[in-house]
Design a protein that fits this description.
Largest sheet of chain A: 7 strands, mixed
Number of strands of chain A: 11
Helix content of chain A: under 10%
Number of helices of chain A: 0
Structural class of chain A: mainly beta
Helix content of chain B: under 10%
Oligomer: heterodimer
Order of helices and strands of chain A: EEEEEEEEEEE
Chain lengths: 113, 110
């Protein structure tokens, strides 16, 4: 089944404790991206990657890192999480960066206390 | 900065009623998409419109792209409880990035 998977689905952590949210897609898509979703603000892009080893900042990159060492994986790293990073996070992929359809993962709900 | 405003933010209606959700911007978009997101899941693409004035129908859902490609609407006829969810519009802007609207949360009561 074609899908985007994220882990973990739920995470509660404390300020400053490094964490990684994994994202994997099995559709051989070139383009992958991370969004955060907050009430009243819609989905905002954090980082994106057009292909392996090519990543760039989205609209809200502060406090986040990403890497794209393999085509299928695009982990999101929070080196020192803070409470304002409490949010619902989505990974998405599409065939190319101009493809109309983006496939979203199921989301990761992160709480930073 | 290109923004997409959706209205209304919340909508609670009875089964069988009709409704329209609006997505507006002062910017021009090369294409516009509508997604539906259910609780605990990621958004799922419903439709993409690319031509000004274009109308697309998906069963009881009708999508329209404004003539000037700055706005769009989603009309649902005879809403059903299964239509409940968060509806998001998303436009592809000047830099070809996808910009999401603020969302409309729809609840259809049986």
């Amino acid at each position: 089944e074609a899908q985007v998977t994220q882990n973990p689905r739920y995470l509660i952590t404390v300020t400053g404790k490094k964490l990684t949210v994994t994202c994997s897609q099995n559709m051989n898509h070139e383009y992958m991206s991370w969004y955060r979703q907050d009430p009243g603000l819609g989905l905002r892009q954090i980082y994106y990657s057009m292909n392996v080893e090519v990543t760039d900042k989205g609209d809200v990159p502060e406090g986040y890192k990403v890497s794209r060492k393999e085509k299928r994986n695009f982990p999101l790293i929070l080196e020192s999480p803070s409470p304002n990073q409490t949010s619902l996070y989505f990974c998405a992929s599409s065939l190319t960066w101009v493809s109309y359809e983006q496939y979203f993962g199921p989301g990761t709900r992160l709480t930073v206390t | 900065t290109q923004l997409l405003e959706q209205s209304p933010q919340f909508l609670s209606i009875q089964e069988g009623e009709n409704l329209t959700v609006y997505c507006n911007s002062s910017s021009v978009f090369s294409s516009l998409q509508w997604y539906r997101q259910e609780p605990g899941e990621g958004p799922v693409l419903l439709v993409t419109v690319v031509t000004g004035g274009e109308v697309k129908k998906l069963k009881r859902l009708t999508f329209q792209f404004g003539d000037a490609r700055k706005d769009s609407s989603l009309h649902i006829t005879a809403a059903q409880p299964g239509d409940t969810g968060l509806y998001l519009c998303a436009g592809r802007g000047a830099t070809n990035k996808l910009i999401f609207g603020t969302g409309t949360l729809l609840a259809v009561q049986p």
